[in-house]
Specification:
Blueprint: E1 2-8, H1 12-21, E2 27-32, E3 37-43, E4 49-55, E5 77-84, H2 88-97, E6 106-111, E7 117-123, E8 135-138, E9 154-162, H3 165-173, E10 180-183, E11 187-194, E12 197-201
Parallel strand pairs: 1-4, 5-8, 9-10
Antiparallel strand pairs: 1-5, 2-3, 3-4, 6-7, 7-8, 9-11, 11-12
Length: about 200
């Protein structure tokens, strides 16, 4: 089940302004302390949401590269997607037994603008198939970020291309994810409908 899309950018403020002008209603998410990043989030319909993530100017540069390719990007990019699971350890073990290393789950947290600290567990796939193999996320008892988001933006379609669509599809199947994958250069494409019109993220 789609949890969220990850749209990375080297210029968080600029990208948020641009998306808002195009009709995507984004609200502050919060900083990821120690990673040098912060995010804004917006609705995609249902319990899915869009995460726009980039460098946090209020944090020092981290010792390690920022996640989601932020430090290597020159333009905003739809880098990956996240799939929700209620038992991340079992999902990871099942995937590994089937030949896909979905990563090692670890804890993360961020403080929302209202002061509430939310935490979750996440696993980044070792072989991510150019961002098409999803990140796994388990919110546990934490309030889901989609709760209380403004309406108006919906995800109309999500599709992918890759030189090895069969390999990608196999990696998706073992974590219970579904995504249309066709042959082509690696990439994710999301089409959104907004009050201002259609928005395509790549």
């Amino acid at each position: 089940m789609l949890d969220h899309l990850v749209y990375s950018t080297p210029d968080l403020a600029g990208t948020v302004d641009e998306l808002r002008e195009r009709g995507v209603d984004l609200v502050p998410g919060g900083p990821h302390d120690g990673l040098g990043t912060r995010n804004f989030i917006g609705p995609l319909g249902g319990s899915a949401y869009l995460e726009v993530v980039g460098p946090d100017p209020d944090q020092p540069a981290p010792a390690r590269p920022r996640p989601f390719r932020i430090d290597e990007l020159t333009v905003p990019t739809l880098v990956t997607w996240a799939v929700a699971t209620t038992d991340i350890d079992t999902t990871v073990a099942r995937a590994r037994a089937a030949g896909h290393d979905a990563g090692v789950p670890f804890g993360m947290a961020r403080r929302r603008p209202d002061g509430v600290l939310i935490s979750w567990r996440i696993a980044f796939p070792v072989t991510d198939w150019d961002g098409l193999a999803p990140v796994l996320i388990d919110w546990g008892d934490a309030p889901h970020p989609s709760g209380g988001l403004p309406g108006g933006t919906r995800l109309e379609s999500l599709r992918a291309t890759h030189p090895d669509p069969g390999g990608v599809s196999a990696a998706l199947a073992v974590v219970g994810a579904e995504l249309a994958v066709t042959a082509g250069e690696p990439g994710l494409v999301a089409e959104l409908s907004t009050p201002a019109g259609r928005v395509v993220l790549r």
